């Protein structure tokens, strides 16, 4: 992945009010009962990236094993993404919230979108229109609920897997014809996800 960088510093912080704790280190010593999934969610890193930088072809890890960890998503960007998910996905099923977060992460990883969560979320079209309506209407400024925070953690750990959706829309709320020309990957609740 284009953003894969080994961490060279040890950091631990808790950002109060966001529900996320940032813990990053160059390596992580596997404890009994650990899984790559839980390590990914705890440290804010992609399981797939952990596997790649540790040359693992499967999910097997062993107590005492030292794993290199990729650069985690920052607390600021996790919070911004959770607020976007909260605003975009009110009333949607949990799976849809994870999918909305995944669309943003897929855009960050894509060569056709900006390279950070903040830049993707605040990006405007050539006509100056925000890509996500909550940025325009101010809903992005409201605190995320626990379900949105959990969805973001899951999407980050799941990053790099899935159906590569780069867009989502509610067909009942948009008249945009271009978005309807995209290849549909999945429909969850009221949202259609597409490439």
TrEMBL record:
A GO molecular-function term, please?
N-acetylmuramoyl-L-alanine amidase activity
**Entry EC no(s):** 3.5.1.28
LysM domain location is 26-69
Q: Which InterPro entries match?
A: Cell_wall_hydrolase_SleB, LysM, LysM_dom_sf, SleB_dom1
Alphabetically ordered keywords of this record: Hydrolase, Signal
Please state the span of the N-terminal signal peptide per the UniProt entry: 1-24
Q: What class of enzyme is it?
A: hydrolase
Name the domain of life this protein comes from.
Bacteria
Which is a Pfam family this sequence falls into? Hydrolase_2
What is this protein's name? Answer: N-acetylmuramoyl-L-alanine amidase
The record lists the lineage as:
Bacteria, Bacillati, Bacillota, Bacilli, Bacillales
